[in-house]
Design a protein that fits this description.
It is a single chain. This protein is mainly beta. It has a single domain, classed as Beta Barrel (Lipocalin), CATH 2.40.128. Helix content is 0%, strand content 46%. The protein is built from no helices and seven strands. The strands form two sheets. The chain has a four-stranded antiparallel β-sheet, with no helix packed on it. β2 and β3 form a beta hairpin.
Amino acid sequence: MPARYQSASLAVSGGVVYAVDRAGTLYAIDAHNGYPLKRIKLGGVGQAGVSIGANSRGEMMLFVPVGNIVAALGLPENGR
């Protein structure tokens, strides 16, 4: 099978860029200097871009589709 290229959208909040790779690893990268802040292995295959939104209580969340689930992670108020 030929190599296939895939891309997904990034999300930015509080000076942090969020991205997920095909291996299901979520990356948090400082938007100002590119320094990696966090790396979280979510498992499964990263399938689409990262989204930011609020839950039913108004708390800001990061939504990441991986495998057969959508992982929902809370965002800190200061963005880091």
